[in-house]
Design a protein that fits this description.
Helix 16 crosses helix 17. The protein is globular and about 65 Å long. The chain is an alpha/beta fold. The protein contains 17 helices and 11 strands. Strand 8 and strand 9 form a beta hairpin. The strands form 2 sheets. It has a 7-stranded mixed beta sheet with strand order 1-7-6-5-4-2-3, sandwiched between helices. A 4-stranded antiparallel beta sheet has the order 8-9-11-10.
Length: 473
């Protein structure tokens, strides 16, 4: 009986039948969302009702409807009205790449289990290093998300800059990093995971335009030093997640060089700008960074999670982890780039390099230029529309596809304005036609869009603004 069940589970003919049906369903989903045959970006449901639906479906639903129902009960990333989190509408070719990875299931940590994917990953990371402006001794690897990549980069920095053998012997010294107060929370989290505590996270205030205030770096460094904190790294945001504003990477690089500390760039969102002729200037100075993070699943049209961590000097990538698993990773007298498990937390990771490689092979690197440039252009266009509205304001002129804006009125106190904007955002969520998110900057509540769909246009923006006005009235 068990044997017959397993035969059914692994049946090539059943896979073929279900697979063709699923591709047809996903094709219809793409058509429906991309061409707005439906007008909804999110089919909002309360957590309790959603949980109850799936409990009932597990016991009473038709298995033939499982994929259709999952697609129905999700946020529609491919809809032009989706302007929420920094998650790309994946290019369809990458979904097929994911299918290959899932079925072949070749881990990438050791060469024997990831021959194709290790070689492909090498090509991809070398290409990214070249676009950053690194020299021939640079390299990197792919890992599962920006949080893990930033943590790995800071571990590499600690290994390279501090004098003690912390990985093997630990430390009683107070270590620290410098980072903008507007940086992504994962940098703060990484520092805490590494045992630095709150005192080891030296927050640098931002200027009026929300960029790191580089004028106070030396004072903050000296202040930390007097407290017995050994600063070993500084992190530049490219850009900040909340505001979409880029730090001045050139000035941070000069400071890091002067202090002989590690310079890391969190380019999870905006690092893809290295491919944009029009917007590469936002990353001026990135070539001086010791390490850079770039997410493929944000601005490079790939499914989550796939993140590149690039190093100016490959030696630093390979020195981070000294732990050895004898049955997996053999010593080598030459550079064994093909055993990526020596560089990453993951001993098993999917064949994520295929996403990057398929896009390059089918469409060339121009596709990344086209995507980033289009989205950044649309961010500026939306901000222009908001500034033309008498009762709206933007937090800051956007440098990317992230725009923070709010409804405002001279007759309202700040508290009432904040409450009103929060209510508008919640009303939009429950209405479902548009999906946007929120943030708080300097005690003000802002609605926030991130233009992720290349087919979002001026008409969608105007309709969103009109809908907000109707909620106010």
């Amino acid at each position: 009986m068990h044997k017959e069940l397993l035969k059914q589970v692994y049946s090539p003919s059943e896979f073929n039948s279900i697979g063709h049906s699923l591709i047809d369903q996903l094709t219809e989903h793409l058509k429906n969302k991309l061409f707005q045959l439906s007008n909804t970006a999110i089919p909002w449901n309360t957590p309790e009702n959603e949980l109850q639906f799936w409990k009932e479906f597990l016991h009473h639903g038709d298995k033939a409807d499982i994929f259709k129902e999952i697609a129905k009960h999700t946020t529609y990333i491919h809809h032009p009205h989706y302007m929420g989190h920094q998650v790309a509408p994946p290019a369809p070719i990458t979904a097929l790449s994911g299918l290959i990875s899932s079925l072949l299931n070749n881990g990438t940590a050791v060469y024997e289990m990831g021959m194709a994917s290790n070689a492909i990953e090498r090509i991809i990371t070398k290409k990214l290093c070249e676009k950053i402006g690194y020299g021939p001794n640079s390299a990197g690897f792919l890992t599962s998300g920006g949080t893990l990549a930033n943590l790995t980069a800071l571990l590499s920095a600690r290994k390279a800059i501090t004098q003690a053998d912390i990985w093997n012997k630990g430390t009683v010294n107070q270590l620290g990093i410098m980072v903008s107060e507007e940086a992504h929370y994962c940098v703060d989290r990484a520092a805490r995971i590494m045992g630095m505590g709150e005192q080891g996270i030296v927050k640098i205030p931002v200027t009026d335009d929300f960029a790191m205030n580089t004028d106070v770096l030396l004072a903050k460094y000296e202040e930390a030093k007097t407290k017995g904190i050994e600063i070993f790294a500084i992190v530049g945001s490219a850009p900040s997640t909340a505001t979409g504003i880029f730090d001045d990477l050139s000035k941070i690089a000069a400071f890091a060089q002067k202090m002989n500390i590690w310079f890391h760039v969190d380019g999870a969102h905006g690092g893809a700008g290295i491919f944009s002729e029009k917007y590469r200037h936002t990353l001026k100075g990135i070539e001086h960074a010791d390490s850079v993070v770039i997410d493929g699943h944000k601005m490079m049209m790939m499914p989550a999670l796939t993140t590149a961590l690039l190093f100016k000097d490959e030696v630093n990538a390979k020195a981070t982890f000294s732990q050895k698993a004898d049955y997996l990773l053999s010593d080598s007298e030459h550079e064994d780039w093909y055993n990526s498990g020596k560089c990453t937390f993951e001993c098993t990771k999917n064949m994520m390099a295929i996403y990057w490689f398929a896009l390059l092979k089918f469409y060339g690197e121009e596709v990344f230029d086209a995507y980033v440039t289009q989205l950044y252009d649309m961010g500026k266009l939306f901000a222009d529309l908001i500034e033309d509205e008498p009762n709206f304001e933007v937090a800051i002129t956007p440098m990317s596809n992230i725009v923070c804006f709010r409804y405002c009125s001279p007759s309202l106190t700040l508290e009432r304005e904040n409450a009103l904007n929060a209510k508008i955002r919640q009303s939009l969520l429950e209405d479902g036609e548009f999906y946007i998110v929120q943030t708080k900057l300097r005690q003000k509540f802002y609605m926030r869009i991130t233009v992720m769909n290349p087919f979002t246009n001026i008409d969608h923006f105007k309709n969103l603004i009109q809908k907000i006005k109707r909620f106010v009235l």
